[in-house]
Automatic annotation (TrEMBL):
GO terms for cellular component: cell envelope. PROSITE patterns: PROKAR_LIPOPROTEIN (PS51257), THIOREDOXIN_2 (PS51352). It comes from Flavobacterium urumqiense. Its main location: other. This is Redoxin. It is found in: Cell envelope. The keyword Signal applies.
Amino acid sequence: MKKIFALFIAFVAISCTNAQQKTAFSKEALSETLLSTDGNQVAFKDILKKYKGKTVVVEVWASWCGDCVKVMPKIKELQANNPNVAYVFISMDKAADKWKTGIEKHELKGQHFMANDQMKGVFGKAIDLDWIPRYIIIDKKGKIVLYRAIETDFDKINETLKKLK
């Protein structure tokens, strides 16, 4: 019985690990539009196209999220240590005014967008969003190299960016 249980645990661990690491975004995620700071709707695929040939860190966050706010100094440190990386922030705020106030308050440098229907909406589901802040790293070829990192994973984020230099 112990052997069967151990095999079951190993299978679940491998299945969960594989489910969390994707190398490309789904068609749903790519076609979903996000609100830009100038009030336009922009398809996620068009946002990514702008950074073709660059390493990109995508941070999914919200101004109301305590964990998001707590790690803002780490984001600034990450940006200072990786100036050649592009940073795209996608907010899960409910109101554009709160989102824009959060950008200014935390002095977030990068390109900013807001999901139209928050965490449980189409975009959130399409990227398997279950926690914020969430970090996704895309390499220069457009391949996702780190699909799911959270605020406790900055060692992994730093290590991934170091490998991509």
